[in-house]
Structures are given as C-alpha cells and as structure tokens.
Amino acid sequence: MSTLREQFDAMARHVRDPATQPGPPGIEARRLKIYSDLVYNNLDGLLAGNFPVIRKTLGDADWQALVRGFLARHHSHTPLFTELGRELIAHLQAEPDPRRPWLAELAHYEWAELGLQLSDAELPPHDPDGDLLDGVPALSPLAWPLAYRWPVNRIGPAFQPTAPPPDPTLVLLRREDDGRI
C-alpha cells in the first residue's frame, strides 16, 4: 500500500468486518484479530448495557449477528458514546428484521430511558400554584409521551408478537426530581 491513509482505511474495513475484509498487508492475522476483537467486544458491551431486553430476547447468536451487522454496515454520524443507542436505532430502521418487525421500536423504547436521563432540558418557568383552568399548561421537557405500533413494554424472550395489535401502545416516560425515570 502506498499511503498511510490506504493502510488506515484497510485496517478500519477489517476491524469493522473481519470476516469479509482483509487487513492491511504486512500485519500478522493474530495482531489484526486483537484489534477487531477489542472493537467488537467494546461495542457489544456498550450496546448490551443499553439494550438488555433486546440482548436477552435475541439470544447469543442473533445478538452477535446484530452487533456484527451494525459494526460492518452502519456509518455513525457522531463519535459520542452517548449517541450509540440512537445510531443502533437508525441502523434497525434502515435494515428492518423481517422476523422481528418490532425490533426498531423496542430499541427506541429501551433507548428512551437513557435519553431522558441524559437530557439537559430544564423545566420551563411556571407558577406551581397557578390555576390550570385560567392559565396555560406548560408541557414538561422531562415528560416524553411516546406512541408505538408494537407493545414494546411487553416484548421479551417469552413474548415476541408476529402482528401488531389494533391499538397503539402509549407510554409516558418522565424524569423525577431525583433523576429516576
């Protein structure tokens, strides 16, 4: 390879997808495996911590395939670890799983808890003693009304629906003063 950039690009392609992308020439396979395993294991750990229901519901083989596919094919738009969950949601929306059409919504539902915890939104000015009938209610940015086509609050290893119910699943997620969701 003639340039350092070409070597870095080959290394990045290999680390993202070691099964189909060769590493740069001149680096032994054992050393390349260390890097690809390190990246995969870190990503796996971060995603598993943010999406425990999905992790448990998919099982080992399908979870690993999801993480490998995300790493190989998704091009993140941010380097921030806190945004990794939204990047996985974008990946699942771009590449829906026909066996699990609820997967992207479940991912959003699981991410929303972390998203609300990390939100730096503040309550708008309001009169806590005001009259709701005379005043204008202020919507709290720390209360997220969410609507899903699938019953995301019930999906898990023992319940994986094959068709959405006739009515949507409505959830109000809120952050308390002490930070609890």
Order of helices and strands: HHHHHEE
Shape: elongated
Strand order of the largest sheet: 1-2
Number of DSSP-assigned strands:
2
Terminal-residue CA separation:
52 Å
Beta-strand proportion: 5-15%
Instruction: Give the uncertain stretches in residue-range form.
Output: none
Count of helices?
A: 5
Main sheet: strands, sense, barrel: 2 strands, antiparallel
Q: What's the rounded overall pLDDT mean?
A: 92
Q: Structural class, from helix and strand content?
A: mainly alpha
The radius of gyration is 21 Å
Oligomer: single chain
- In helices, the fraction of residues equals 40-55%
Description:
The chain is built from 5 helices and 2 strands; from the N terminus they run H-H-H-H-H-E-E. It has 181 residues and is mainly alpha-helical. The N and C termini lie far apart (52 Å).
Helix/strand layout:
Elements: H1 4-16, H2 29-50, H3 52-73, H4 84-94, H5 103-118, E1 143-148, E2 169-174
Antiparallel strand pairs: 1-2
Task: Please give a handful of descriptors for the protein shown.
5 helices; mainly alpha; 46% helix; two-stranded antiparallel ribbon; 181 residues; single chain
